[in-house]
Amino acid sequence: MKRIIPMIMSVALSAGFMFQSCQDTPDTVGGALVPDRIAVVVDSSFTLDGRSVVNTKVQSRTTTQLLGAIKAKNYGVLSSDYVTQMFPSNAIDTVGIDVNHLDQYIDSVKLLLIFDKGGFIGDSIAPLGIQVYELDKSLPYPIYSNESPEGYYDPSRMLGNAAYTASGIGINDTIAGYGYRYIYVPLPREMGYDVFRKFKQDPPLFSDPQRFASEFFKGFYVKSSFGSGRVTRITDTRWVMYYHRTERIANSQGVEVDSVRNYASVYMASAPEVVANSHIQLSLDASVEQMVADGHKLIVSPAGRDVEIDFPAGEILSAYHDEAGDRSVINSLIMSIPGREVDNDKGIGMPKNLLMVLSSKKDDFFAQNKLPDDVTSFYGVYNTTDSVYEFSNMRSYLVDLLQKEELKPEDYVFTLTPISLETESSSNYTSGSSTQINAITPMVSLPSMVDMKLGDAKIKLTFSRQNVK
Hints:
eleven-stranded antiparallel sheet, 13-stranded mixed sheet
């Protein structure tokens, strides 16, 4: 009878542990157990198969949204606008402002859209137009990329509009040196009046984002109005109020005089804590569909195609049982899958990170804002040196499978889908630098595509075994 002892330790320590265990059992029938052979077994004979599957919707709870429209060869036609609730400031400075005469203080109100200097794909100088509307219906949660904004706003009540480029042409030298760009959309000044008055009437409302969204301001819908040729990654949406007030200050002679002070304050902003969603429409190019028909395993994002794989769990377990010996320890299970770029005319590249999650648990993973647990879900990073996506922490998954009496498809059918990581770096003298993943969301920030070469995937099982007499 074979005895399997799963332990978390290095190969050298595992072998040492088993060796010591044998020496420490002198009362065993027949005398002490004498080590016969300790060997490290490496099996990389496994193959991977799968298919490209349609993924028409994604769920994302992130402040990063996609705006614009683009057409690309060997990709397709992509358009996106977005809706977002707003997280209110709980400290609005109303000192010295008469709420009955706000027109004397509030100068203007603007919606500020922020994007990285290079956070777009397409033509940087093409002028695109946007329109902004106030939502008049609460957004659902969870919300998906195929959820149309229709019915959540009144098309006849536009708040503001603007035109913009991504080139930075026409901005001053100081802003040109920044790593980000702004899109300003003028809004009615009366919005500022409403916010000031509401804060004076009900300050606790501004400390409760959910109540704020349901009872006072439900959010914005930002849509393209004209133009195409660029999609932009909007990293932040802010509601800014510009106002002034007269204050008493001391002049150079120490005499108090009236002075007009100007302010620009952000009193609402998008945030991960509130609901936001990119409404994405992607029509794949006929060449993409032909590649899929020809057997290519394509991932196309956002809301295009994922790759579903049949992980060879049964074959791995059989190989392990056949070679395990009297005692064994699983050391590691790793997988690497080559990814290849798909030629296109807009510079659409491959995703940097992929989530590998059991297909039956994919929706639940994103709905509950989970992180990879290395049993039902993993994340792979693209290794630019070897041109592969690496999944290196699959040992716990195999240990978990050993406890099952039989395998079902929900145990080994996985989905590979592009993701965005929110990370935090830290360092100290004892452990050095480290990076912690705080959140994972579906990749909706920019288009991407990759041809997954499943036939060239490498799956390597390593375990230590000991035969005893």
